[in-house]
Amino acid sequence: MNDLDKYERKKEKKIGRIMRNSVLVLGIGIGLFLLKFLVVPFLGDNEQGERVLVIFSLSLMGYGVINVLTFMFLKDGLFKVNLLMTWVVLPLVLLKLVMDFV
């Protein structure tokens, strides 16, 4: 076993981890979106809480879908897209949600 095989196996493991996390986040986003229909009636007339829940769930679903589509069509760019989504896009969306909610 040479170094190239080790590198390829390590790369495939990383891709597998990214894809597993992307699918889990996509499932959490779908679950939160569906949970909106169960929780919102108990919130009363709190439109702001409903909006935050919808935007948060849509951002999680977007993260998962973008990573899955990147894996399907541009496998070499998956690491860059995942890094960008994890450290730039999602924190900015969460920061915007916190600023809107407060």
Task: Report the structural category.
Answer: mainly alpha
The amount of helix comes to over 70%
**Overall residue-averaged pLDDT value:** 89
First-to-last CA distance: 56 Å
Biggest sheet, open or closed, and with what strands and sense? none
Global Rg:
17 Å
Give a count of the beta strands, DSSP E runs of length 2 or more: 0
Tally of helical segments: 3
> What are the secondary-structure elements, in order, as H or E?
HHH
Low-confidence stretches: none
Strand-residue proportion: under 5%
Q: Overall 3D geometry?
A: elongated
Please outline what is shown here.
The chain is an all-alpha fold and 102 residues long. It has three helices and no strands.
Top keywords for this entry?
102 residues; mainly alpha; 3 helices
Tell me what the structure shows.
The protein has 102 residues and is mainly α. It has three helices and no strands. The protein has helices spanning 3-43, 47-73, 78-101. Helix 1 (3-43) runs antiparallel to helix 2 (47-73) and helix 2 (47-73) packs antiparallel against helix 3. The chain is elongated.
What's the topology here?
Blueprint: H1 3-43, H2 47-73, H3 78-101
